[in-house]
Amino acid sequence: MINSLKNIEIDIHFLDHYTDPAFAISQNGTLFEWNEAAERAFGYTREDVVTNTSTEFVELLHDTLAPIMSKEAMFKLKDIKSIPQLKLINATGQPVTCSLLLTPAKKNNEPAVIGFLHVYQEKSDIGYKVQHLESITNGLEKSFMLTYLDYDGFIIGCNNQFLKTSHWTPKRVIGKTFWQLFPDHEEIEETVEQIWQQLQAGNSWQGEVEKVTKDGQLYYTYLIAIPTIAKDSNDPIFVLIERDITDHRQLQTQLERIAYIDQETGLMNTHRLENIIAEKIEIGRHFSFVYLSIDKFYTLKDLYAVEAEESLIVEFTKRLKMYFQDSTMARINESDFVVLTPLSDWFIQGFLTYLQQNPIYNNHAAVPISISGGMTRFPEDQTTFSQMMKASVATIATVREAGGNNIVSLSKASHKALNRRSIVEKRLLLALDQRNLDVYYQPLVDAVSNKVIAMEALVRWHDEEIGTVSPDELIPIAEETGLISEIGNFMLEKACLQAVEWQKQGYDLKVSINSSVREFRDKNAAKTMLEIIERTGCPTTSIHLEITEKFALEAESESSIMSQMRTLEQAGISFILDDFGTGYASFRYMQLLPIKTLKIDQTFIASMLKSEKSAQIVNGMVQLGKSMNFAVIAEGVENEEQVEMLQQFGCDILQGYYISKPALPNELKSLLKA
Ligand code: C2E
Ligand code: CA
Ligand code: CA
């Protein structure tokens, strides 16, 4: 980071303290400073030069500079530019030979340039490019460290600022060398050499450097090294102008630490990890990205008191380091970690066993710590950091749902599925926002009279971008993302409005809406549903909610779900147990929950004709339902033989392609009239 003299020379007024001529040019080419020394040396007053740009001297100066440096280049100067020889003419027409040092500066925040002139008075031009700058340093004495070196690099003088910072005494420092000012390590060695070479070549150097005090403490300075001429002896010497920036640097490194290192564990954080991965990807190094997440971390935290939480993480990190040794390790958040390793999957999975063999103790009891993890390989599976993270987070959720304590490998195939999922999620949000879902209805007929008595509302989604998404794909995604409530409410409203419409047309049809248990986790689900129904003007008694056995199982153990079902039942809504026979049918919940109807799952109906046994099972289900006073529906009825058999068994209601596929209300008109 080259900082240039800009900082020093922002205030142009100090030019007047110089004993040598100096001027300043603004970007539009006008001279706006001309110090007293310049007035003396050239015989032009400040007024001549500053206020009257047409003066011959200003023109001459511009003409003289033009071949050396373009105006654009002049105002883009990042560094000091020295012009060893310049011929100008003073007010009396005499030629004046001088050297010029241009340095970038600012005037009212616009780029400007300051020129320090040194007039050669002696014939002895020793060929040294830059002439003495004592006059400049006079002005800097108070705020900067100054060190003077002879041509061989021995320290020949310094100011108090330097002594204060470097802890040297004036006696001791004289005779020490330039190189002794810097710490003794390789990184800085190169820079020191560079500075020295530049000085030897007659050039200046500037930049940030690390230095060392007499007693070995490190400090940082912004250093400008300039070759010059000793005032008294005319010997070439070097001057180091420095400002202590240690505080600034320390703050910076501290900030860097905070930005890159996790304070608690000393592991790197996500930002640093991201950089390292980018580097590895760039050089094409193969590695496994292992994402590890502590299972039930918040429960562990609660169980093992707050003080233990830190040591839990620290202890866990220790085991991580012991097991994965030199691998790159990062802490992603409170309980999640990432390891980058070239090691094989089976070795990585061995970490679970290692954790069990080396338990973390809390009050002499082993903390039951387990991990959910995902491994994905670069470049075989994923090719970017964000892909790796995304894929891992999704995998961990699945692993955890399946009970945790497992590290699974994530192939490209499952990544594709995840990608599709995230697209579906995004598009679904949009579709819901624009109410872009369709409701299809599938009729249910009375098995005896053959009359349509109800319609099941089924969601249909055709998306412009991703095409048709079947409910079997859509519903699980909606359940996981919580969007299922939105879908449920949308379907309920549409179905209610349609029921009202059918009623207007003279058809008394119940509408049946599929409900997911996830919707009932919202404590206000029942209330919201009743509000929607009321708004549509649909009688509650026309509404059936279909719940699955999984729903029933959960409802039985969760009083809030149960009570919401009761509220709905009391309001007049009935419940149908859908997919009956596929889950854990239990007499208990069949009695406990306000269920009035069973819907035998279509898989039983499909196999009914193929095997005697299946037919018996279906018969058994029908009889069971009847014995418990439930109405019984058979779904997935596809042919006449099934209809006949179901009628024989005494099944009450039939649903399936044999009667009609799910369709739009328009398409169902003829069926209703019949
Ligand atoms: P489900 O509730 O068991 O719905 C019956 C499914 O079987 C429907 O598939 C329907 O089109 C299909 N089906 C009906 N008759 C026949 C038949 O004779 N033969 C065959 N092979 N299939 C038949 P769909 O519409 O694809 O829905 C699949 C599942 O998605 C539904 O199963 C339901 O669990 C869920 N679902 C659909 N819409 C919604 C909704 O609005 N909310 C919720 N929560 N779930 C819904
Ligand atoms: Ca259903
Ligand atoms: Ca079903």
Topology (SSEs and partners):
Blueprint: H1 6-9, E1 22-26, E2 31-34, H2 36-42, H3 46-51, H4 56-65, H5 71-75, E3 81-89, E4 95-107, E5 110-119, H6 134-140, E6 145-149, E7 155-158, H7 160-166, H8 170-173, H9 186-200, E8 205-212, E9 218-229, E10 236-244, H10 246-260, H11 270-282, E11 287-294, H12 297-303, H13 305-324, E12 328-333, E13 336-341, H14 345-357, E14 361-362, E15 365-366, E16 371-378, H15 385-401, E17 406-409, H16 412-433, E18 438-446, E19 452-463, E20 467-469, H17 471-481, H18 484-504, E21 510-514, H19 525-536, E22 543-547, H20 549-557, H21 559-571, E23 574-580, H22 587-592, E24 595-600, H23 602-607, H24 612-627, E25 631-635, H25 640-649, E26 653-655, H26 669-673
Parallel strand pairs: 16-17, 19-21, 21-22, 22-23, 23-24, 24-25, 25-26
Antiparallel strand pairs: 1-2, 1-5, 3-4, 4-5, 6-7, 6-10, 8-9, 9-10, 11-13, 11-16, 12-13, 14-15, 18-19, 18-26, 19-20
Helix pairs in contact: 12-13, 13-14, 16-17, 18-19, 19-21, 20-21
One calcium ion (CA) binds at residues 456, 514, 546, 578.
What fraction, in percent, of the residue positions are helical? Answer: 40-55%
CATH class of the largest domain: Alpha Beta
Strand content of the residues, in percent?
Answer: 25-35%
Q: Determine the N-to-C terminus distance.
A: 86 Å
Q: What Rg is obtained from the alpha carbons, in whole angstroms?
A: 42 Å
Question: What class, by secondary structure content?
Answer: alpha+beta
Number of domains: 4
Q: What is the typical, i.e. mean, pLDDT?
A: 85
Name the strands of the widest sheet in spatial order. 18-19-21-22-23-24-25-26
Shape: elongated
